[in-house]
Amino acid sequence: MSVVDRVEYEGEGLTEAELAPTPWQQARRWVDEAYERARLVRDVPEPSALSVATVDAQGRPDVRTVLMRFFDPAGPGFVTNLESTKGRQLSENPAIAASLTWPAMYRAIRFRGTAMSLSREEVAGYFQSRPWGSRISAWASEQSRVIEGRAGLEQAYARRAEQFPDRGSPDDVPVPDFWGGYRVVADEVEFWGGRRNRLHDRLVFVRTGEGTLDDAVAWRIERRQP
After folding, report:
1. Which residue of the set 88, 150, 198, 202 is catalytic?
2. Contact between 171 and 128 (Cβ < 8 Å)
């Protein structure tokens, strides 16, 4: 069956004159605008939804959506159970790609590079900022493992809730040893802006040297055809 519905992209695109001097400054601008649109227009329901692609031992790609919980000039970062599918794949092959996509804004940012483990200090700092229930779920879920029914998951949650009762302190629930996260150290950062007639803009920062996303000397810019 073919899909016949077509949507004309009414985005403003992105020109070289509008592009910020570093990938960090441009990404920060677009992320901030996505959050502002989510607040005012409410057609961007989860601005930090980050699609993350990894590769398994057979070379087959795998993709899933997580939430971007770290974002600074070092790169976007996310948290996960390190024994999950993505965690096991990244331990064997740190190659990673990730994208932020906002269809309502006709915009996307793509990152390609290498996954670097977050420090335990970063992980603990974020973990303690989570609501108590989210900290309990990190213990309860053996992420990516097969389970026969939802009842087993809810029973595991109840056991952990009893083990670590909510006393209103960030230290109520310890950080699991198997829980951590990754930062995407990018070699390429692409800014995609949708336009009419599928003549989209694709402006790409390509790494040419050492430095963060905010070091202009570490990057060159190229335009790629849509």
Report:
1. 198
2. yes
CB 108 within 8 A of CB 26: no
Distance of CA 27 to CAs 112, 173, 197, 218, 224, Å?
A: 14, 34, 25, 16, 18
Q: Where are the beta strands (DSSP E) in the chain?
A: 49-55, 61-67, 70-72, 75-81, 95-102, 107-117, 179-193, 201-207, 219-223
> Does pLDDT of 3 surpass 90?
no
Write down the residue that tokens 């965690």 correspond to: 87
- 101 beta partners: 108
Which residues partner with 219 through β-bridges?
207
| Mean pLDDT for the chain overall | 96
Q: Does 162 have pLDDT greater than 70?
A: yes
If you search the block for the tokens 């390190």, which residue do you land on? 82
Residue 115 contacts residue 184 (beta carbons within 8 Å) = yes
Reported as a single tens digit per residue, the pLDDT across 61-114 is 999 999 999 999 999 999 999 999 999 999 999 999 999 999 999 999 999 999
Q: What is the pLDDT of residues 73-85, one digit of tens each?
A: 999 999 999 999 9
Catalytic residue status for 198 = yes
Spatial CA neighbour of 79 closest among 180, 195, 151: 180
